[in-house]
């Protein structure tokens, strides 16, 4: 059996490996290579070394701004999404009436695509701001908080489901034992429930973190292309596509360099975060 | 474990998506090429999604007449440059594509074949419209368009007949200057209830991506006049810095637009062109700045209350001296190019197709009646113009005596980035968070920095 498996392994794995190489490894390697070049189309490029990377930190006006904005946005939404989702999960595991209905209702926004969500919220937010005679473009702060609300609305339902699964997996005897020992509900929450759902926390923070960091379509649909409210992904897109003319090749190279930095940031942050929360998980 | 499963699943989905997309594209046109030296197919990357279906008919007709298959791909609205960038890198690169003017030419110079000796160029009525460099011709305009202030003649006539009107003007022909336009517009705004409109001008849509009527089209007027007064040759380098001499005039008309409109000036940041055109179609306003392509957005709207014969153009007056002799803005940003990296046979086939489209009876019929182009070639008779009210208005203005129409010089605007930033600044000016001086400074400085001067 083992032998046959070994023998046929390449044949079975080959299609997947080929697909992986064609659609991930090759474009990724090309992308990294192109970030050191200036190019108009991807198959003819000119090597310029590190100059793209230097330019985006020195002459480019938008990169550092959107990087900082993205960090702020990610920070705010990771915290708010997870706290609200966890509280909802707690509430909906108490056996209240209509629990299933509420779970469904909270989950549904997650099924709507990003662009659609952006336009829906743009209507809602502008409808409300319209009462005060302004709209979301009036102040970049409005755009930022609008995006946070949108992100919460979209992600909370999904994270809530993961937390519910985590909470339901906690064996009943732990809670009962604690109750017999005279633990208050707060003590149960902090000493049993939260440590026991740490694996879910890992997954949820990971998902919200990367999702917020990579946010693109919601940003475009809600805030338009205004440089003041562009997060990193949108900034990369604009760098790549919104410049024409003589320096087109240079802008393409710079866009590519931004994308490589973007990838490194996402990878590093996700890695650190995974390590950090992993250590807090308990086995039972 | 769950994480690993998740990441594997997401990788696979991504892989699948890309795979299916690739397959979809490559299958499209590789048949019918077997073992024949003559070119059987040409590829065309179309810029205008609204007429994509017409090209399918053209393709069928051309194949029937000549046996050559025309494969038309259409870039979605606003994605032409990115689609072209992607397609040029493939083996199925388009043989025929288009650029948007001198700036587009610098982006794609090495892909543009010389068209000086093509039949199509020989028939171009106004040779100065073509994109030229070093005495060679790299882009041929294939459609002429015009824009200005579209007005509803019925509402204006109602105003001129109003007993309580406070101006002395009695017909549209009396409006020949900014002062006259301003007086009429402001008085109309006062009487808007009696005229049955919500405001004189449709909303000044300033949403990003929907603000080109101001940051591109309106901006073209002061800059074209500035270039002309300074004697700048647009084939040289002179346009790489601007003074924005007529900034105050731009402000005049922009203020007039945003203050006498259907919509409050603080709420313009989320409105799009379609909704402005719908306001005009539904009779909620009397004027809207746009071009002849907007005719379908007026007549095609359900509940449209504007009759075709009431849709007219007037020039955009902004108080620049001598403006009584200026007309509407007529030009093009559609220049057809042939891919210099395609084989010689393919280039020849592409030339033949273009000449067929703009000279044969079948082709011309498509151009005039289906594509709705005002084509700038002498193969077209004076009577062969599209049958829509604004296209007829454009030809009326083109043939008017003593009127100089303004060319489309926004083809030398540096980039989308520049236009977006200018649009954002105009929005802030409308909202009151930016002064006009700041807008002017930004317009001048960004221009310079985008050109790297």
Describe it for me?
Helices cover 74% and strands 3% of the residues of chain A. With 284 residues, chain A is mostly helical. Chain A has a two-stranded antiparallel sheet. Chain A has a domain at 67-229: MetI-like (MetI-like fold), CATH 1.10.3720. The model of chain A has no long low-confidence stretch (mean pLDDT 88). With 453 residues, chain B is of the alpha/beta class. In chain B, the strands form three sheets. In chain B, strands 6, 7, 8, 9, 10 and 12 form a six-stranded mixed sheet that branches. Chain B has a four-stranded antiparallel sheet with strand order 3-11-5-4. At the A-B interface, helix 1, helix 5, helix 9, helix 11 and helix 12 of A face helix 1, helix 3, helix 4 and helix 16 of B.
Question: Helix tally of chain B?
Answer: 17
- Describe the sheet with the most strands of chain A: 2 strands, antiparallel
Report Rg of chain B: 24 Å
Say how many strands of chain A there are: 2
> What CATH architecture label of the largest domain in chain B applies?
3-Layer(aba) Sandwich
What are the secondary-structure elements of chain B, in order, as H or E? HEHEHEHHEEEHHHEHHHEHEEEHHHEHH
């Amino acid at each position: 059996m083992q032998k046959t498996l070994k023998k046929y392994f390449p044949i079975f794995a080959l299609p997947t490996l080929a697909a992986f190489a064609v659609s991930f490894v090759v474009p990724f390697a090309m992308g990294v290579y192109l970030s050191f070049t200036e190019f108009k189309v991807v198959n003819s490029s000119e090597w310029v070394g590190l100059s793209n990377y230097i330019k985006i930190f020195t002459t480019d006006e938008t990169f550092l701004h959107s990087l900082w904005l993205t960090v702020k946005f990610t920070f705010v939404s990771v915290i708010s999404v997870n706290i609200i989702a966890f509280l909802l999960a707690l509430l909906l595991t108490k056996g209240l009436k209509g629990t299933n209905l509420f779970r469904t209702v909270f989950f549904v926004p997650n099924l709507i695509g990003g662009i659609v969500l952006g336009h829906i919220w743009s209507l809602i937010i502008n409808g409300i701001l319209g009462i005060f005679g302004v709209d979301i473009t009036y102040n970049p702060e409005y755009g930022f908080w609008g995006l946070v609300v949108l992100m919460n609305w979209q992600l909370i339902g999904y994270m809530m489901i993961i937390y519910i699964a985590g909470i339901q997996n906690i064996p009943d005897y732990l809670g009962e034992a604690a109750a017999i020992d005279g633990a208050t509900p707060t003590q149960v929450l902090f000493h049993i429930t939260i440590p026991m759902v740490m694996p879910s926390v890992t997954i949820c923070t990971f998902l919200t973190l990367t999702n917020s960091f990579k946010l693109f379509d919601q940003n475009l649909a809600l805030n338009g292309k205004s440089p003041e409210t562009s997060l990193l992904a949108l900034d990369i897109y604009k760098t790549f596509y919104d410049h024409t003319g003589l320096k087109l090749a240079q802008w393409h190279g710079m866009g590519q360099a931004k994308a490589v930095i973007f990838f490194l940031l996402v990878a590093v942050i996700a890695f650190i975060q995974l390590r950090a929360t992993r250590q807090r998980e308990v086995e039972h | 474990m769950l994480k690993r499963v998740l990441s594997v699943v997401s990788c696979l989905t991504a892989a699948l998506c890309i795979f299916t997309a690739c397959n979809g594209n490559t299958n499209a046109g590789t048949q019918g090429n077997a073992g024949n030296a003559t070119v059987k197919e040409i590829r065309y990357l179309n810029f205008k999604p609204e007429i994509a279906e017409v090209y399918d008919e053209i393709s069928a007709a051309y194949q029937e007449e000549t046996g050559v298959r025309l494969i038309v791909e259409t870039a979605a609205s606003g994605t032409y440059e990115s689609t072209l960038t992607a397609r040029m890198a493939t083996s199925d690169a388009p043989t025929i594509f288009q650029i948007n003017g001198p700036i587009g030419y610098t982006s794609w110079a090495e892909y543009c074949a010389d068209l000086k000796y093509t039949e199509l160029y020989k028939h171009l009525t106004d040779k100065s419209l073509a994109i030229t460099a070093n005495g060679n011709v790299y882009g041929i305009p294939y459609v002429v368009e015009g824009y200005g202030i579209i007005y509803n003649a019925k509402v204006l006539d109602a105003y001129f007949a109003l007993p309580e009107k406070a101006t002395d003007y009695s017909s549209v022909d009396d409006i020949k200057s900014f002062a006259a336009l301003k007086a009429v517009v402001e008085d109309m705004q006062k009487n808007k209830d009696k005229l049955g409109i919500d405001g004189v001008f449709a909303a000044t849509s300033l949403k990003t991506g929907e603000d080109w009527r101001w940051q591109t089209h309106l901006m073209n007027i002061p800059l074209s006049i500035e270039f002309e007064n300074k004697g700048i040759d647009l084939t040289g380098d002179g346009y790489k810095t601007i003074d924005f001499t007529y900034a105050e005039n731009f402000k005049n008309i922009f203020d007039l637009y945003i203050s006498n409109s259907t919509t409050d000036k603080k709420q313009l940041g989320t409105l799009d062109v379609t909704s402005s055109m719908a306001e005009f179609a539904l009779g909620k306003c009397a004027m809207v700045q746009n071009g002849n392509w907007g005719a379908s957005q007026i007549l095609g709207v359900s509940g449209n209350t504007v009759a075709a014969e009431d849709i007219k153009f007037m020039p955009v007056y902004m108080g620049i001296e001598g403006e009584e002799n200026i007309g509407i803005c007529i030009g093009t940003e559609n220049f057809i190019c042939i891919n210099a990296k395609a084989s010689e046979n393919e280039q020849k086939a592409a030339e033949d197709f273009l000449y067929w489209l703009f000279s044969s009876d079948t082709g011309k019929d498509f151009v005039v009646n289906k594509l709705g182009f005002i084509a700038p070639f002498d193969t077209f008779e004076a009577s062969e113009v599209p049958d829509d009210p604004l296209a007829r208005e454009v030809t009326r203005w083109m043939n008017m005596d003593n009127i100089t129409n303004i060319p489309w010089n926004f083809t030398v605007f540096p980039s989308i980035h520049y236009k977006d930033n200018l649009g954002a600044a105009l929005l802030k000016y409308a909202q009151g968070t930016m002064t006009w001086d700041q807008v002017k400074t930004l317009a001048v400085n960004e221009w310079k920095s985008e050109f790297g001067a």
